[in-house]
Amino acid sequence: MPTPGLKNHATFVEHWTLPLQFPLGALVLLCVMTSARAALPGDSADGKRLHDAHCTQCHDTGVYTRKDPLVLSLDALKQQLQDCSHMAKAQFSPAQMQNVVKFLNDQFYHFP
After folding, report:
1. Does 34 lie in the same domain as 67?
2. Are 87 and 78 in contact, with CB atoms under 8 Å apart?
3. Do 81 and 56 belong to one domain?
4. pLDDT tens digits, the chain, 112 residues: what are they?
5. Which of 6, 11, 37, 89 falls between 20 and 30 A from 59, CA-CA?
6. Backbone angles phi, psi at 56, to 5 degrees
7. 9-34: buried (b, 16+ CB within 10 Å) or exposed (e) per residue?
8. Residues 6 or more apart from 71 whose CB is under 8 A from it?
9. Are 33 and 48 contained in the same domain?
């Protein structure tokens, strides 16, 4: 025989926990998305310095925000930077390349 009041307790718990599941799930998803973006290695401030010193000699930041973007992934961003640094005759170390990628991704692209 069921314990008296258990059905009411279960209904109470169900009533109050279901509405809390959505906000909790959204919070967990937001934390995961934020940590994934923050996990990209590099120094964004140094990337900005390098970008401003080298990249803006050929183009302004409008190329990153155009309606028909050419760069559609993090790998494509790395390849584009490699191509641009070759054209600009800039010799970036791997760490400097990563810093510029981090700056561009943090500032403009927001790839995961």
Report:
1. no
2. no
3. yes
4. 555 555 555 555 555 555 555 565 555 555 545 444 457 999 999 999 999 999 999 999 999 999 999 999 999 999 999 999 888 888 999 999 999 999 999 999 999 9
5. 37
6. -75, 0
7. eeeeeeeeeeeeeeeeeeeeeeeeee
8. 64, 77, 80, 109
9. no
How far apart (Å, rounded) are the C-alpha atoms in residues 58 and 87? Answer: 9
Distance CA 92, CA 85 (A): 7
**Residue appearing with tokens 């791997």:** 94
* CA–CA dist 66, 82 (Å, integer): 20
13 and 52: one domain? no
pTM of the predicted model as reported, rounded to 2 decimal places: 0.66
Q: Please give the tally of structural domains in the chain.
A: 2
Phi and psi, residue 42, nearest 5° = 130, 175
Tally the C-alpha atoms within 13 A of residue 68's C-alpha that lie toward its C-beta.
0
